[in-house]
């Protein structure tokens, strides 16, 4: 599902809100989530999952095209861990 599909679905589900209002709400939620991660805060949405940052050590990598060694700097990357109820809902083998 893309962001525009999410906005369309929410607009249909809540006809009292205009599409522009729903779009603004979705953008605000995503902006707040991004801002919180920028400040190295963990974001927990109960029943859905948690967003956090994981630190990656500096290392020597390889350029896949040339095979040359490349020095990669340390960095933080976003990480998502699904919550228990989300895992149960998407488990198609149970």
UniProtKB/TrEMBL annotation:
The keyword Ribosomal protein does not apply. GO terms for cellular component: chromosome; cytosol. It comes from the Bacteria. One of its GO terms (molecular function) is DNA binding. It holds the Pfam family Bac_DNA_binding. Keywords: DNA recombination, DNA-binding, Transcription, Transcription regulation, Translation regulation. SMART domains: BHL (SM00411). This protein is one of the two subunits of integration host factor, a specific DNA-binding protein that functions in genetic recombination as well as in transcriptional and translational control. Belongs to the bacterial histone-like protein family. NCBIfam families: hip, PRK00199.1. Heterodimer of an alpha and a beta chain. This is Integration host factor subunit beta.
